User: What shape does this take?
Amino acid sequence: MDNKEAERARARELAAQFADRGDATGWFEAFYKEAKGDNRKIPWADLEPNRFFRAWAEKAELKGDGRKALVVGCGLGDDAVYLDDLGFEVTAFDISPTAIEWARKLHSGRDIKFEVMDLFEPFRGWLGAFDFVLEVYTIQPLPLEMRVRVIDAIASFVVPGGEIVVVTRGREDDEKPAQMPWPLSRKDLSRFEEHGLIQTSFEIMIDETEEPPAPRFIVTYRAE
Ligand SMILES: C[S@@+](CC[C@H](N)C(=O)[O-])C[C@H]1O[C@@H](n2cnc3c(N)ncnc32)[C@H](O)[C@@H]1O
Assistant: This one.
């Protein structure tokens, strides 16, 4: 088992322990804490912006022009930094206080608001308040029974005329997701469209570093 696989196995173990107590999200804080500041212990934290999002953003020639962006479940904050570099006014949040403290330390010179926040209990002022909402890998580790609620919460942040970008592991509609992180299907994603969001692009990129190579979906929506 390589390092990443060992850390993923540890994440699954912790997630299962918390789930047994009826807590679907508490394991994230425990996991970040356990890493003791070593990002190699966090399989998703490579101190780089997500490469699938970056590939999409470069192709789309994404520019912030001072628009307000929100990064959902930002972890150590590298996607927030990327959006800051593109000229967005960035707010980024995570449920884990340890992750947010870590992100603030890593990016202390940046004018980014890093906030500890639960997706399901956001500031009321954030609802319908952001021009650009970025979601990378937050939906997939949350239990399938919560999927609709998670998507509803993410959809609530965007302003009319704004945009949401989702980067996620992907699966076919008829494929049973085997283990956490549970990839999203097109049917799962269609929930975004129940919020008056129009799907504006759907790209599939392959992560060749995984064995077997695994699809990532990069999906964009515009709010009417
Ligand atoms: C798989 S990690 C991805 C982190 C980051 N987006 C990245 O790609 O590096 C999922 C993140 O979502 C956060 N998270 C999970 N549930 C959350 C919730 N209810 N509210 C806010 N953040 C949450 C976790 O703490 C974790 O940092």
Remarks:
- The chain has one domain: 47-223.
